[in-house]
Amino acid sequence: MTIMNMIEAINHTHHLMMARDPEIVTFGEDVGYFGGVFRATAGLQKKFGPQRVFDTPISEGGIMGIAIGMAAYGLRPVAEIQFADYIYPGFDQIVSEAARIRYRTAGEWSVPLTIRSPYGGGIFGGQTHSQSPEALFTHVAGISTVIPSNPYDAKGLLISAIESNDPVVFFEPKRIYNGPFDGLFDRPVTPWAKHPKAEVPEGHYTVPLGKAAIAREGNELTVLAYGTMVHVAIATAEAEGIDAEVIDLRSLVPVDIEAIEESVKKTGRCVIVHEATRTSGFGAELASLVQERCFYHLEAPVQRATGWDTPYPHSLEWAYFPGPIRIGNAYKKALEA
To answer: HEC string of 218-278?
Structure first.
């Protein structure tokens, strides 16, 4: 075991997988010589050469186009979109081509493509470096959407994504690249070194896509979260003295509905937490699934603690971010009803 933060775990996974499989290529803006804006691809070009690790122009549509062509040809590209906010120019390629090729060719072709992208706020990135577009991709049949919450899962999920024969959008919560976050922005950053999930095996292992994890056991209510919000949800439950069971979804599509159903039927109450805007956020789909499958077990309406339906504000970042106060209020509403 080696202690790693999330960036180190992702970088280590790149090195491991590219050494194992010569068909894996990595590219994106500043990915090669510079090693990525967050250094997640540091050292790859030097080790594997500019033919397998290379920089691209600032053209997300172009990045996605060549990635899909490479994947259809038989390579396993790992394409980085520098910030999730800039994935939209490549959206048509992802939705209309990557997600559809297996269906359109009756299974004759596949697209083993992994799209990595940092997402979310908490770093004062403003409206163009803080967005959470994950729900857009969960709506598209043919794509898996994955979001890790810790270094151990980041490596295991990324390996599963790279080894998948279908496209995977792999969103990385950049607020917790260097350590877990309790939602209290005015406190010093806690490094991953103090967290048990920072212990990452050196070798190959996988975390299956579509399998959630119980991040905190409890009996009073169920909290569904992913990415950064897993840690904020746990910290809020502990601060409020609430016996909450926090489910780390890890994969949004495929979603582990069995784990959700088992927990909600046990607790009878459910709170959904995500950083993305509220309207049509993935929490709405989760609330619908819980209502459909657990209606007769629910003791109260499903609650949501989310971002607001506004652009991500720079000067009012922490008014937008669903922190301990908003999450705590959602817990109390679920318990008081």
So the answer is: CCCEEEEECCHHHHHHHHHHHHHCCCEEEEECCEEECCCHHHHHHHHHHHCCEEEEEEEEC
Low-confidence ranges of the chain (pLDDT < 50): none
Bridge partners of residue 251, in order along the sequence: 146
Cα 81 from Cα 180, distance rounded (Å): 23
* Interatomic CA distance for residues 87 and 69, integer angstroms: 18
**In whole angstroms, how large is the CA radius of gyration of the chain?**
19
Rounded (10°) CA dihedral 281, 319, 310, 253: -20
6-20 helix and 151-163 helix, angle to the nearest 10 degrees: 30
Q: What is the pLDDT of residues 233-250, one digit of tens each?
A: 999 999 999 999 999 999
Query: Residue 129 catalytic?
Result: yes
Other CB atoms within 10 Å distance of the CB of residue 57: 8
pLDDT value at residue 210:
98
120 phi/psi in degrees, rounded to 5: 90, 170
Q: 131 with 194: CB under 8 angstroms?
A: no
For the record, the structure tokens of 42 come out as: 């540091």
Dig out the tokens for 192 from the structure: 């991953």
Catalytic residue among 129, 195, 231, 274: 129
Backbone angles phi, psi at 200, to 5 degrees: -120, 125
Which residue segments constitute the domains of the chain, with CATH numbers given? 2-200 (3.40.50.970), 213-336 (3.40.50.920)
53-55 and 244-248 strand pairing: unpaired
End-to-end C-alpha distance for the chain, whole angstroms = 45
